[in-house]
Write a structure and sequence with these properties.
290 residues, seven-stranded parallel β-sheet, globular, disordered N terminus
């Protein structure tokens, strides 16, 4: 990416984490948005690597186990996610989304900002920038098309499903998610004020470095991008990715900003439920198709 941000200021180097100006004395909790067909287990390595005192709140989209599985529009899903996050007590959280979840996390951050609730930072993984994304219209046309699309992403996606029953659940859920994604509106009307970190796996077939770097246009709060070892999903468990997220969630010393300093990853954080419409939730690391 270039050396100048859209606002004319010098942009951070691509291998740096965006600075998070922090006024709180504890690491930030992370709200994780799963990808299409996923339920949160893909964030298990991140949950275990976060600094002591940091919780990973794995978002279970409303109606995930129902038929049909959730809201009937992308906008309705954004509203549901924003409402849940806005109701959480405490300081702002880091929003982290993978693939389909990256677009949902971005749209949710914009919706929260519009109502005066700031995200501490946004981390997007395995998703091209909103103005560069190629919507998977063909993949959402049928269950069979969705299955072929997922299988084409590599073994790190459906290859992690434990059995054929879970594979069928993953495909059906992903079909619904991809149908919602075809209505993704693209860039928000205003840019985010929080910092953004955009990441892709070098072996990910559906993203590209330049399209990841274009996330810089979504924020005025600091930006960094990185291509790391891994594919579309297994990049979430790479040590390089975990270190970058830790740098985002860990608060700096008083009067400083959080950057690329190494975080203490020796502690294990608890999986925390983020309630859905009926009070249930999805703990990171629980049963999931991928």
């Amino acid at each position: 990416m270039g050396n100048t941000a859209p606002d004319g200021k010098a942009a951070p180097a691509a291998d740096e984490a965006p600075a998070v100006h922090e006024a709180y004395a504890v690491p930030r909790d992370v709200v994780a948005f799963p990808g299409a067909g996923a339920f949160g287990s893909e964030f298990r390595a991140l949950r275990d690597a976060l600094p002591p005192g940091t919780r990973l709140l794995a978002l279970q989209y409303p109606g995930r186990a129902a038929a049909p599985p959730g809201p009937d529009s992308f906008e309705a899903l954004v509203t549901a996610c924003a409402t849940r996050i806005r109701a959480l007590p405490g300081p702002p959280r880091v929003l982290l989304g993978h693939s389909f979840g990256a677009f949902l996390a971005y749209a949710t951050a914009a919706a929260l900002q519009a109502t005066g609730t700031e995200a501490a930072a946004l981390v997007v993984v395995g998703a091209d920038a909103p103005d560069r994304v190629r919507l998977p219209v063909e993949a959402a046309r049928s269950r069979e098309a969705t299955r072929a699309y997922l299988e084409g992403l590599g073994e790190d996606v459906l290859g992690q499903v434990p059995d054929e029953e879970w594979r069928a659940i993953a495909v059906d859920t992903a079909w619904w998610d991809l149908a919602l994604l075809t209505a993704f509106p693209g860039p928000a009307g205003v840019r985010l004020r929080c910092p953004v970190l955009a990441v892709r796996g070098r072996e990910d077939p559906i993203t590209a470095d330049e399209r990841i770097a274009a996330w810089a246009g979504t924020t005025t709060g600091g930006f960094a991008s990185a291509a790391l070892p891994g594919g579309h999903t297994d990049v979430l468990a790479s040590p390089e990715f975990l270190a970058r997220v830790n740098a985002v969630v860990t608060p700096p010393a008083t009067g400083a900003t959080a950057g690329t300093g190494a975080a203490d990853t020796t502690g294990t954080t608890a999986a925390t439920r983020l309630p859905d419409d009926d009070g249930a939730g999805s703990p990171a690391g629980g049963p999931a198709p991928r």
